[in-house]
Amino acid sequence: MNRKRGPWRGIAPQVAQSGDPTQPRLTTSAMIASLASEGQRTSPAPFGRALVEVARNRPEIVGMTADLGKYTDLHVFGREYPDRYYQMGMAEQNLMLAAAGMAHEGFVPFVTTYAVFASRRAYDFISQGIAEEGLNVKICCALPGLTTGYGPSHQATEDLAIFRGMPDLTIVDPCDALDTEQATHAVAAHDGPVYMRLLRGNVPLVLDEYDYKFELGRAKLLRDGADVLVISAGFMTMRALEAADRLRADGVAVAVLHSPTVKPLDEATILREAGRTGRMVVVAENHSVVGGLGEAVAGLLMRRNVRPPAFQQVALPDAFLDAGALPTLHERYGISAEAMARSIKGWL
Amino acid sequence: MEARTTLANAPSLQERAYRIRRNALRMGEVQGQGYIAQALGVADVLATAYFHALRYRPEDPYWDGRDRFLLSIGHYAIALYAALIEAGIIPENELNSYGSDDSRLPMSGMAAYTPGMEISGGSLGIGLGIAVGMGLGLKRKGSDRFVYNLMSDGELDEGPTWEAAMSASHWQLGNLICLVDVNRMQADGASAGVLNSEPLAPKWDAFGWHVQRVDGNDIGALVQAFDAARALAEPKPRVIICDTRMAKGVPFLETREKSHFMRVERNEWAQALEALDAGRTA
After folding, report:
1. B interface toward A at CB cutoff 8 Å?
2. Rounded mean pLDDT, A274-296
3. What's CA B15's distance to the chain center, in Å?
């Protein structure tokens, strides 16, 4: 396909006849659209607010960003501790190296940018500047997976695949506001480099209704069920819980195992739950089918000879995704709660 | 090691540079090859750094009061090992292990392997950005110590070098001294043909740096440049652009066809040491 000659990915208005032509099509809206569904409870800036709290008695914690403080909630930290806030400019490679230098001097930098820029642009500098030396730098990135409608330049659909290949890097993908807040505390207490996916702005609040606490390196069973085991990370856990509710109405019992630490995996818990007889295993993630939690779990089960009756992935396709409104895209690529419930039913 | 150069019986910087070159040749002989031309070329810069400018304690290489010295060009590890041996940070008897299995002296410098090696360089263009972070960190701690970053002219090809140059100036890092070894040679040939980075001084000046350009094989000029860089009151990062001659000190290698990875025959190492000795007092 020659992109310069088309076919274009968008559809011109005079051609678009799907749906009700009198209804306006959904719009992409802001760069960072909220993931909250209508009426859902949310909590503002959980990462920024948690970091302010963590840093109160930890003067060695500093914040550094590459011109995205406001879009990663690090500005909340910057307002509270202006002299500990480093605006490094739109230069992600230098951001990571400068953070390495700060860590060499005993500081604990929390650095923020978008996930696409940390993973694609700054990889070598995180690998050789930070991880190879085991430096205590926390890389916290907004717009993980498909959380913006701006298209592939901003959609980090392969960040987990990229970072899973980096030795000694801990990878965390929290689900909601509560998870993000608790993960921020845990990540700060951990000695070593961490990559954390960030939801920012008004972040859905879901896990407070469960008997749950974030622990680094641990997967937690949020609900049990005899027919299907969903293993999930990030906001897909929220979607899995919703899908499980829908499926219960159809008489399908779905267990949800939330595994926010993508690396190192909580192998014992995953093996235990996946080893229970008779349950299909579905791995759900806000990420490409290539190289994320799904393949990590699949590899683990194969290596340890745990063979569930079926294995499926709810994940994004291995493709450069469309631009558009998030609800449209989540439905299109099968990661909305409704689409997920449909898929699972089809697999049973 | 503070005030080391005031010791009346201390060897001259020329003698230090000679010994660094000698250590490097002896390591090169172990491998039969290596970045020996670069090591010989940069020896005077390292002698001036380690025996005139830097504050450090050989018995405690991570003493917090040390000046930091980053080797961005990991390939030059042979040169830095030679200096660290002369400085008493690495025992001389380790020299024979250079580049061997399980040695503390691998071919490319890494922090996890070698005492006194501050960072893992080698992914070229990595050092200056780390130096920016260390400079920020030292300022934050209220330390008056310097961060030195030794890089090559080849690393000027790398974009992050210029991100870091802009950043150092933005943050007014008067505690940062960058040493650029300009030997005009990189992996695929002469720097001017690979990617021309001249004119260097106006570039660094435009990025907001205090700039000096000196003959990097003239110890007198280097001492003056290091002194000026350290004494400058202006809160600007400082760069000393050092024009060096590859293989300096071994005339028959100086005139050999210039190569990034210079070939030295088995029987030539002894000759090289002899040639170096012959020029010792010159």
Report:
1. 68, 110-112, 118-120, 122-123, 126, 128-138, 140-141, 147, 159-160, 163-164, 166-167, 170
2. 97
3. 17
Mean pLDDT within A280-298 = 98
Determine contact: A96 vs chain B, CB below 8 A: yes
Q: Where are the alpha helices (DSSP H) in chain B?
A: 13-31, 36-48, 77-86, 127-141, 159-170, 191-194, 200-206, 219-231, 251-254, 268-278
pLDDT tops 80 at residue A14: no
Any residues with CB less than 8 A from the CB of B121 and at least 6 apart, and which?
B70, B71, B72, B73, B74, B77, B108, B109, B110, B127
What's the total number of domains in chain B?
A: 1
> Is there a catalytic annotation at residue A60?
no
Confidence at residue A31, expressed as pLDDT on a 0 to 100 scale: 63
**Residue B5 located in a structural domain:** no
B85-102 pLDDT, tens digit each:
999 999 999 999 999 999
Which of A128, A137, A166 is the best substitution to test chain B (most B C-beta atoms within 10 A)?
A: A128
Q: Is A140 a residue whose pLDDT tops 90? A: yes
| Res A145 pLDDT > 50 | yes
The highest-level CATH class for domain A42-204 is: alpha beta
Q: Which positions 136-165 of A are in contact with B (Cβ < 8 Å)?
A: none
The Cα A283–Cα A89 span in angstroms is 38
For domain A217-347, which CATH number applies: 3.40.50.10170, 3.40.50.1820, 3.40.50.10860, 3.40.50.920? 3.40.50.920
DSSP characters over A119-143 = IIISHHHHIIIIITTT---EEEEES
pLDDT for the residue numbered A9: 82
Q: Mean pLDDT per 10-residue run, chain B (282 residues)?
A: 56 97 95 89 98 98 97 96 98 95 95 96 96 98 98 97 98 98 92 95 98 98 98 98 96 84 88 95 58
Closest in A97, A102, A103 to B160, CB measured: A97
Q: Which domain holds residue B32?
A: 12-278
